[in-house]
């Protein structure tokens, strides 16, 4: 058996797993079965999302073929399946493989409708088509909301805002002129969640509230929910009084804040978070806290870079991957330890074909293994064995707020290592002038929730915003603020 092949699904006689291990064999299979050119084969492969395609072997490791999503219609939770093998299968084996793959799709991607199944061998191609009723086009019955955004309006608003690539965009018009743009970003169909973006004409100042009422946003939200987006969230700078006043007149609810997660002029301030899920009504008992605000220069320090290595207790250490060679650390051994640890995480779906869980030697396009070498710190024991990682996911407010993720090898959890690692990381970040650190934790991740409850503060819960194992789960937001801020504010008082 190929040592890089990792079985992720299993039937009575076959294993389904690592696609890239057999990618060249798969290309040859497609060419042989269908008499295709190299260019046509590449088109086939590009039609299958890398995370949802897999090689198939027998229990002895002999290659049989592949199976994968094909021509995905994520908006309607539908797709085709492409299933190709190098020999004719018995009907029960074929059915078992398809059933196992279908179950995986439903559990991990919420794909519930298959439009067609394309089954190919050297001797035949079967196409089983199924009728899918597409989602009806939802029309907003609001005369102020016009589908789409013109290039001219986009250019005009881009002078005042950094506008991301918008999905389901609408123009907000009043008295024949454009007063705003509304749309979604970071839309993840599989999790049915997205960020709401509203850009208002700054030249109107507070007068815009006379022309814009909350029901416009509510109408757009209803449209988005009808388009199969379940959770919608919006972040607003604490000083943006116009937007906060507008949101108070909608059904969106405030659910938390990111302390010092936004920037306004030369100040760092809080980012207020609002959300909506279907049938949510305004909860008037929730009070939005005062906006925390500090000067951007208040936390400037001489230390600009994170340390290359941080010693911990009992021989453990946090080390930058870029220092592995200098420290004589075997990166392959560390990566293999990471692979094994990631496979053992509870409730985390293992992608089929991106193969984030093994080291693809000589391939620059590997997933989790490559990611590890770009993480902020890897945690090792005294023998330089893998123990975990901690990483900066993204930064906000010109780097004064960072979002982090942490992963400790399941075998080493519940012994205080995670607490030590995250506290050391907080100290290191704060020593470089970071104002606050945030983390998002899925509600099923009990070890991480217990860890963050000890070291940080719960700042909000994003409802039903992560789909896995047949259910939508909440996402908890935790934060830790640099103690120098409180000390400084105490001196000012």
Short descriptors:
single chain, 493 residues, alpha+beta, Aminopeptidase, 3 domains, eight-stranded mixed β-sheet, 12 helices, 23 strands
CATH architecture of the largest domain: 3-Layer(aba) Sandwich
CATH class of the largest domain: Alpha Beta
Helix/strand/pairing category:
alpha+beta
Assign the CATH topology of the largest domain. Aminopeptidase
The biggest sheet, with number of strands, parallel, antiparallel or mixed sense and barrel status, is: 8 strands, mixed
Distance separating the two termini: 69 Å
The total number of structural domains is 3
How many E strands?
23
Number of helices: 12
What is the molecular shape? globular
Q: How big is the Rg?
A: 26 Å
Per CATH, the superfamily of the largest domain is: Gcn5-related N-acetyltransferase (GNAT)
Compact summary:
The chain has 493 residues and is α+β, with helices and mostly antiparallel strands. It contains twelve helices and 23 strands.
Please render the helix and strand layout as text.
Elements: E1 7-10, E2 14-17, H1 23-34, H2 38-46, E3 53-58, E4 63-73, E5 78-85, H3 91-108, E6 113-120, E7 125-129, E8 145-147, H4 151-158, E9 167-174, E10 177-188, E11 193-200, H5 208-211, H6 214-226, E12 231-237, H7 241-247, E13 253-264, E14 267-276, E15 293-295, E16 309-311, E17 317-319, H8 331-343, H9 368-372, E18 377-380, E19 386-396, E20 401-408, H10 417-431, E21 436-442, H11 446-455, E22 457-468, E23 471-481, H12 483-492
Parallel strand pairs: 5-6, 11-12, 20-21
Antiparallel strand pairs: 1-2, 2-3, 3-4, 4-5, 6-7, 8-9, 9-10, 10-11, 12-14, 13-14, 14-15, 16-17, 17-18, 18-19, 19-20, 21-23, 22-23
Helix pairs in contact: 10-11
């Amino acid at each position: 058996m190929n040592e890089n092949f990792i079985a992720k699904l299993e039937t009575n006689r076959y294993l389904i797993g690592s696609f890239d291990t057999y990618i060249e064999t798969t290309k040859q299979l497609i060419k042989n079965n269908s008499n295709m050119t190299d260019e046509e084969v590449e088109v086939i492969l590009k039609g299958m999302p890398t995370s949802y395609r897999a090689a198939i072997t027998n229990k002895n490791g002999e290659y049989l073929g592949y199976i994968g999503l094909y021509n995905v219609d994520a908006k309607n939770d539908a797709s085709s399946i492409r299933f190709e093998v190098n020999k004719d299968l018995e009907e029960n084996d074929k059915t078992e493989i398809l059933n196992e793959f279908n179950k995986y799709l439903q559990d991990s991607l919420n794909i519930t409708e298959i439009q067609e199944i394309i089954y190919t061998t050297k001797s035949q191609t079967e196409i089983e088509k199924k009728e899918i009723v597409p989602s009806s086009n939802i029309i907003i019955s609001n005369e102020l909301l016009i589908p789409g955004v013109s290039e001219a309006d986009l250019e005009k608003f881009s002078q005042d805002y950094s506008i991301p690539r918008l999905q389901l965009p609408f123009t907000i018009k009043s008295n024949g002129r454009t007063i705003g743009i509304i749309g979604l970003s970071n839309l993840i169909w599989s999790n049915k969640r997205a960020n709401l973006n509203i850009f208002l004409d700054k030249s109107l100042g507070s007068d815009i509230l006379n022309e814009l009422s909350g029901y416009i946003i509510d109408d757009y939200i209803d449209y988005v929910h009808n388009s199969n987006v379940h959770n919608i969230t919006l972040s607003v700078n604490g000083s943006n009084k116009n937007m906060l006043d507008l949101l108070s007149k909608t059904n969106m609810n405030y659910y938390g804040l990111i302390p010092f997660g936004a920037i306004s002029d030369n100040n760092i301030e809080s980012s207020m978070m609002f959300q909506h899920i279907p049938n949510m009504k305004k909860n008037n008992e929730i009070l939005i806290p005062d906006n925390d605000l500090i000067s951007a220069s208040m936390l400037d320090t001489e230390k600009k870079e994170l340390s290359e290595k941080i010693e911990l207790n009992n021989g453990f250490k946090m080390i930058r991957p870029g220092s592995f060679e200098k420290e004589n650390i075997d990166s392959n051994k560390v990566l293999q330890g990471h692979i094994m640890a990631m496979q053992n995480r509870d409730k985390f779906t293992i992608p089929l074909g991106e193969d984030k869980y093994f080291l693809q030697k000589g391939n620059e396009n590997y997933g989790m293994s490559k990611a590890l070498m770009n993480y902020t710190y890897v945690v090792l024991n005294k023998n330089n064995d893998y123990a975990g990682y901690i990483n900066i996911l993204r930064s906000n407010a010109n780097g004064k707020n960072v979002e982090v993720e942490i992963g400790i090898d399941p075998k080493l959890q519940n012994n205080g290592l995670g607490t030590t690692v995250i506290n050391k990381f907080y100290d290191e970040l704060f020593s470089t002038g970071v104002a606050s650190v945030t983390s998002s934790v899925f509600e099923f991740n009990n070890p991480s929730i217990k860890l963050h409850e000890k070291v940080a503060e719960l700042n909000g819960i994003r409802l039903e915003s992560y789909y896995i194992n047949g259910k939508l789960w909440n996402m908890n937001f935790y934060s830790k603020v640099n103690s120098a801020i409180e000390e400084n504010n105490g001196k000012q008082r």
